[in-house]
Specification:
The complex is a heterodimer of chains A (928) and B (179). Chain A is of the alpha/beta class and 928 residues long. In chain A, 27% of the residues lie in helices and 16% in strands. Chain A has 28 helices and 37 strands. In chain A, strand 14 and strand 15 form a beta hairpin. Chain A is globular, with a radius of gyration of 28 Å. With 179 residues, chain B is an alpha+beta fold. Chain B is elongated and about 105 Å long. Classes of the chains: A alpha/beta (928), B alpha+beta (179). Chains A and B meet through loops of A and helix 2, strand 2 and strand 3 of B.
Amino acid sequence: MAKISVDGIEYEVDPDNNLLQECLSQGLDLPYFCWHPCMGSVGACRQCAVKQYRNAEDKNGTIVMACMTPASDGSIISIKDHQATDFRSHVIESLMISHPHDCPVCEEGGECHLQDMTQMSGHNYRRYDFKKVTHRNQNLGPFIGHEMNRCIACYRCVRFYNDYAGGEDLAALGSHHHVYFGRHEEGTLENEFSGNLAEVCPTGVFTDKTFSAHYTRKWDLQTAPSVCAGCGVGCNTAPGERYGTVRRVVNRYHHDINGYFICDRGRFGYDANSSDQRIEVARFRHGQESQFNTLSALEAKRQLNAMIGGDVIGIGSPRASLESNIALRDRVGVQNFYAGFSDGQFNCLQEVTKSLRETGLVCPSIRDIEQSDCILLVDEDITNTSARLALAVRQASRSAATELAKEARIPLWQDAAVRELAQNTRSPLIILSPQGTRLDDVASELHLLRLTEQLHLLQAIAHVIDPQANDLDDYSEANSSLANNIAEQLCRAQRPCLVSGISAESPALVKACTNIGKALRAHHSKNAESPRPIGLCFAMPEANSMGLALLLESGGKSLGAALQRLAQGNVDAAIVMENDLSLRVSAVALEEALAGQTPLLVLDQQHNSFNAKAQLLLPTASVFEQHGTWVNYEGRAQSSYQVFRPSEGILPAYEYLSITDPVQQCLVSSELIIQELARSDSRFNSLTDLRPPRTGISASMKSPRQSHRYSGRTAMYAQAHVHEAQQEQDRASSLAFSMEGVMLQKDASLMASPWAPAWNSNQAISKFQEEVNGELKQGSKGVLLCSRQSNASPYERFDIDSEQKLACFAIAHLFGSDEISAQAPAIQARCVGPYVCMGQSLANALGIRQHGLVQLETATVRVQLPVIIRSKIAQNCIGIYCANEVDKYALLNGKVALQAVSEHESHIASSRAMFDLLLIKDALRGEA
Amino acid sequence: MLRLIKDTLGSQCVTLWRVFMHAFAKTDTVEYPDVQPQMAARWRGRIILSRDPDGEERCVACNLCAVACPVDCIALQKAEDEEGRWYPEFFRINFSRCIMCGFCEEACPTNAIQLTPDFEMAEYVRQDMVWEKEDLLINGTGKYHDYNFYRIAGKKIAGKDKGEARNEDAPVNLRSLLP
């Protein structure tokens, strides 16, 4: 700790940081633009000027940039010094010379860092008489709007997009006062994190295009803390609602998980909530009739209760909240509760939960991954399944740069200097994958291997690290040198980390990764002086995959078993909750099960081919419309709060399924379901701390969902009825559907959109952090549900399938693989149809040319799909992207026969247009 | 004694006389509604939405009037035409809540929302006090004749390209190396 004096007041600060960061950490107001807590300082904007004095006797001092000056012990600075304030007001005046005077028609207005800083620096009138520089805008695709005139050239966008997120298609173009931030030509921004530009940009150059389409000022949005349901990372989000629809989703700071950034699926997938595929009313059909009757919510509930009698099975869902799954399990009984996973995932998750309880290993949070110094990424294409993990892995590759900078005694916030020093030095990131990934540019090694080859290699690595891991002696020569090399890097690392996933649906893969973790543990317990954290994590495809898996530990069978029972027809009814079973099993298996004529009760959010077959279809609330609990890949349970009440008739699944006591209506609240679970199941004990207590003063003083500037209360719905309705009551949480109330103790887990006096933009978050980029001052970070066992378990044994002539693997895409977000129009614009990818040699053997058609045939299915031939793909291997249309399990589990199909040129052209959207860099050009 | 008479009786006579003289004074009340009162132009009465000198809607749906409104009686939704011009998809004032404070007019950056001297807004049905954009929009510039927000702001709209707003240079040619 160092002591610095700011305007005569002493503060205890961290000498490793710069003055700007420390001033902000102390809650002082100092204007800035180019500095960002995650990206360090470059000193580009000159806005954070302060006066620094050499010693107590020095009365003149010198003006320095706070962001470029270390907060060294004994520093004496002044923010209020009149020369410093003068300097800052002149800097902002210069920055504003070409500003286009369009705040009223700017999406950033009202939450603009530039507005805030202009106010803070005291600039009012443009005194400059000459002409303003203007720029033409670019169309940057369905996500991001561009208005270049508003730019103040702080360079944050390119520093985030290129340096932090690894994008390649945004650049600072031009020179001097003509500098321009955009693409080399118009077109969609390629990076998966492009949406963050809207938050990173301190002004309105980059804005959220989907938000602009139904724009509402920040102060008019009703927001509640939420959790992204796009994948299993569990990023914290703040969705905003107005007039009954979700208007946008922005990042909500969580120290251990998403930090300041979320991926584009999470940010732009919200529009699915008001898509035309949404189920809005309950409907019922008698027997085999094709006609549906619509039901009111009450009738629907009655109908449901009437149909649940006798032997009823329930199929849960990894995309439904923990509460809904519990309610379903309690309704049908543990013996009748079945997992909503595909059987492959079910088997994988059993292994994953075991590994999460393994002593000596840690499941790294996103922040832990960022700090890891050696990562082995196995099989999972995390950019497309858990994108935020991929961003963290990208940061981890800079650990080597961090080490170099520490040796050279360069402070880490000196961003440009650290990058200059490190050049292309990266810490080891070893990728084993059947095809090239978006992380290849930061990978130290990329090994294109089929799953079976990966398993052999993983076994060999485990064997090298600890010979007791397996009795392996027949691995090939090539594997042995590779395994030695990878094992050596893993052993040398201070914070090694293994990242894999369950997309391959291979329990052997999970076991193989766990074995390496155990081998490292054994190796270090023998050799190392101090225990090293050995990270092992598995990306989860859905928001509550882990929650459901943990729930199933205490009973519950696989989906296959459920379908078997259905096929036998000895079940009175089946309840399927928020689950499209056609995406979990092959069409044939599903058909066989449904042929049993068991009445099918489906609860879901969106219409799909499966729930069209339901006898009773009930509309359920989305993540924005219910209080829910979600367990992420680490086993961290987090609460999401209802942002707004959905239209009448749409209820959370748990409200349909819980048996309501007519006297105690409140039995169905999510809070009570969670409390009951925490009480009855010791593994979930810690859930009692998940939500803030609602006793004493906090019971009556709720936190508002609306800002204190929320407008239009007496006019919003006046066209329907001029008498204002009573404010909606929320009896189930500590939040109120109101602008009244107090942010109790500024509890961060209840604070959706940060605001502080003079700080209207999202940068106000620093006022709620212990220190900049640190923990939030108060509030729950979620609770970790998986406690480690006390003793180590032995190595896992598994068999590796014999090599097939042709291996198939499933491809996932960030836009399209998630069934809910794929309904959002902006995401749809980035989605592609099903396709097959293969290598050149295979294509030559089959006589297929680039973008031509191939026919895939198994015993049960025959499809024709366009082909992309790429150079980065394992030998004798094809990847299939099913786009939730093609029968994935029939293709992946069956024996696929390939055959070229003759096609028209027009086919090729249309497939080419589709593949252009995919941005696969290593796709081969020209004819095969 | 005389003094007492002067102080009491005299004073009462003067008062009576003055009251009597009021019978001949000029009347201040007007025979409303037969006679219409003369309202000052700056009177804060019925709210209108005006058009710019080119005849386009002035309102750009920036929401500043709504947020300035102390009784929250203004609600609107932004929409945007293909050329980038913002306008309100709907614009609603609940006059049964409006207190005619004029904050909305002060907040308006485009001079779109203005208060007029018209105060005759009584209704039998309260629902009729809810006015939509079609009711509020007039075919003129109101009190401010020349102001056109889009001629000053640097946003491109139909008929005004980049670089054509006040004080703007033609758009930069990024391919040029000239200083």
